[in-house]
């Protein structure tokens, strides 16, 4: 089984270490942060340095009549009946576990993140959907869909529990908002609730959706391929619990 530790801090960081039975991602550490002394065994970094915020620089595309063009063959259907493709974890700070057709993320550590990523396959151009079911969250707590994840870097569609949405890029230790802050009736502002999250990605262009409602687009030339995943973020002191299910991925045609 793949296991993923809980990452704490004001933004998302990863730890990469591989054993015979575990694969996780390492958070890029800012150059000014001291490097921990090596130990005899691999040790998770529970309180890594905070990522450096990068100012939002815009880059949204103008909406077009068809924001999901060229959807083709269904490539992947994951009913979450098997835990093997996902990174999981369980300790006093939280749980990421697959059971009964659902991926459950429960985070008990304040102001921290938890990610669960699919180890394969790697996608370049695609259209993907997943259902998110927050059962315990409040205010600025977040949950969402991770795409093009590679070596810790990724894009993500993030929803807050008070009904806002944004798209972000995490790369090289920096987190930058690419689109949003959007509030709409299509975005739930309470828990429990259920939403279908979707991302259309082709080259440098990506479109983001909630419940078949088009939110925003970005054009970015930094990350072109990677795996998929999900995350939760505790913005305050309360616990956050969100489950995910029914992942589907399609090809994009000409």
**Roughly how many Å is the radius of gyration?**
17 Å
Low-confidence stretches: 1-65
Q: Give helix % range.
A: under 10%
What oligomerization state is this entry in?
single chain
Helical run tally: 0
Largest sheet: 10 strands, mixed
Order of helices and strands: EEEEEEEEEEEEEEEEEEEE
Q: Find the structural class using helix and strand composition.
A: mainly beta
Instruction: State mean pLDDT (0 to 100 scale).
Output: 81
What does it look like?
Strands 1, 6, 7, 8, 9, 11, 16, 17, 18 and 20 form a 10-stranded mixed β-sheet that branches. The chain has an 8-stranded mixed β-sheet with strand order 2-10-19-12-13-14-15-5, with no helix packed on it. A hairpin with a 3-residue loop joins β13 and β14. It is globular. It contains no helices and 20 strands. It is mostly beta strands. The N terminus is likely disordered. The relative contact order is 0.25.
């Amino acid at each position: 089984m793949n296991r993923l530790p809980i990452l704490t801090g004001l933004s998302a960081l990863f730890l990469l270490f591989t054993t015979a039975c575990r694969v996780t991602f390492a958070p890029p550490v800012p150059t000014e942060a001291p490097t921990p002394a090596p130990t005899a065994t691999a040790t998770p970094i529970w309180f890594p340095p905070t990522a450096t915020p990068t100012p939002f620089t815009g880059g949204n595309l103008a909406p077009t009549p068809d924001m999901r063009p060229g959807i083709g063959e269904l490539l992947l259907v994951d009913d979450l009946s098997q835990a093997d493709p996902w990174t999981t974890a369980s300790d006093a700070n939280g749980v990421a576990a697959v059971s009964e057709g659902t991926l459950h993320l429960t985070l008990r550590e304040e102001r921290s993140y938890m990610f669960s990523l699919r180890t394969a396959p790697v996608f370049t151009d695609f259209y993907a959907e997943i259902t998110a079911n927050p059962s315990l969250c409040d205010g600025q707590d977040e949950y969402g869909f991770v795409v093009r994840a590679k070596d810790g870097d990724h894009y993500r569609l993030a929803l807050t529990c008070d009904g806002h949405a944004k798209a972000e890029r995490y790369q090289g230790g920096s987190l930058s908002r690419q689109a949003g802050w959007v509030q709409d009736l299509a975005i739930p502002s309470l828990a429990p609730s259920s939403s279908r999250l979707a991302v259309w990605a082709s080259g440098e262009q990506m479109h983001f959706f909630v419940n078949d409602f088009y939110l925003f687009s970005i054009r970015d030339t930094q990350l072109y391929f990677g795996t998929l995943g999900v995350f939760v973020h505790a913005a305050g002191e309360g616990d956050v619990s969100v489950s995910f299910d029914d992942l589907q991925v399609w090809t994009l045609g000409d």
